[in-house]
Design goal:
The chain is α+β, with helices and mostly antiparallel strands. 27% of the residues lie in helices and 33% in strands. The strands form three sheets. The protein has a five-stranded antiparallel β-sheet with strand order 1-2-3-5-4, sandwiched between helices.
Length: 335
């Protein structure tokens, strides 16, 4: 399944009705009740009108996400505006900074299953909203709290990137891949790779990469990194081929793990070795494709490391997107 977000630039009020209709239809077609879809309409209206009134435009990203028979509409709202000095204060219904009714963020929070916001003065604001079609929320992940922001190259209908998280006996595995180029052929390559990853019983990332390599020879090929966690040995085991960037944060310190040169499905090194590092509580892993610049520093943003994975992914997207390729940003926090 393509997990990418649709993206719209919002810089004129004339776009609002179109975007609201698109997301409303997505909700109805995904089984949301008319009442719940109406609440989605209110949230989208508030987000988009705030972009125009307070930030002179921005970007709205949305998708439908399904997990354990619960469907969620997930929305990111990103701007480069003046920022917000006190986000808690303005989330109170009735507060206004422009002599309007001032029910915007309070209404969004009330109608959403999850609402997150991060803002810095003169930097801008990123927001995340999830709205479920059922009373129960998406299940909490016991050991890994993660989020991924995936978008197509502008103009493409499918994404050539992919990610997948798999629970295994005594741990979990993460796959992030990027099919060569973009469009349907890149999408096909990464989807075929994920099929192999999902059913592979190997725990060793090097062996999984070899299995994928042998199975996708007839595709365009891809680059990918696999990270395996073993609770018993308390280790990360990481191996990658091609330019997927991987960093693990322990506190404020981070280390980048360098993949091998090559193309999975075409040419990979005869010798592949894993990198093994300690697995600890409260670590954070960031993995992304080359749709994102690699020279970024999260310490430049005040307190961002304390925030949820959705906010970190959105902040990286906001500041580091190249806009010339598909892009996937995966952020996971160890509980």
């Amino acid at each position: 399944m393509d997990k990418s977000f649709s993206s719209y630039k919002v810089d004129d009020r004339s776009f609002v009705a179109f975007i609201k209709r698109e997301i409303h239809n997505l909700a109805i077609n995904s089984g949301f009740s008319v009442h719940r879809a109406g609440e989605v309409d209110i949230v989208v209206s508030e987000l988009t009108s705030n972009l125009i009134k307070h930030a002179e435009g921005g970007e709205l990203l949305y998708r439908i996400y399904e997990e354990d028979d619960v469907k969620d509409i997930q929305i990111y709202c990103i701007d480069h505006g003046i920022g917000i000095e006190n986000t808690q204060r303005i989330m109170n219904d009735g507060y206004s900074s422009t002599n309007t009714l001032g029910q915007g963020l309070g209404a969004i929070k009330r109608l959403s299953d999850e609402f997150l916001i991060f803002s810095i003065k003169k930097w801008g604001t990123v927001q995340y909203v999830s709205i479920s079609n059922k009373a129960e929320k998406l299940p909490l992940r016991k050991n890994l709290n993660y989020a991924a922001l995936q978008v197509c190259l502008p103009g493409e209908l499918v994404c050539g990137d992919g990610y997948y998280v798999k629970l295994i006996t005594g741990g979990f595995q993460i796959f992030v891949g990027d099919g060569l180029g973009h469009g349907p052929n890149a999408h096909h390559a990464v989807q075929e790779a994920m099929k192999v990853f999902r059913i592979c019983r190997e725990k060793d990332p090097t062996e999984i990469i070899r299995d994928i390599h042998n199975s996708v020879r007839k595709t365009r090929g891809l680059v990918a990194t696999i990270a395996t966690v073993d609770y018993k040995t308390a280790t990360w085991t990481i191996c990658g081929v091609g330019n997927i960037s991987t960093r693990i944060f322990t506190g404020v310190d981070s280390k980048t793990y360098t993949p091998y040169n090559g193309i999975i499905g075409h040419n990979i090194p005869r010798t592949l070795n894993n990198t093994v590092v300690p697995y600890e509580k409260h670590q954070m892993i960031v993995m992304h494709s080359d749709g994102l610049r690699t020279r970024w520093n999260l310490s430049d943003m005040q307190s961002i490391l304390k925030h949820e994975p959705q906010m970190i992914a959105a902040a990286l997207y906001k500041d580091q997107m190249r806009g010339t390729d598909d892009a996937t940003i995966f952020v996971g926090k160890i509980r």
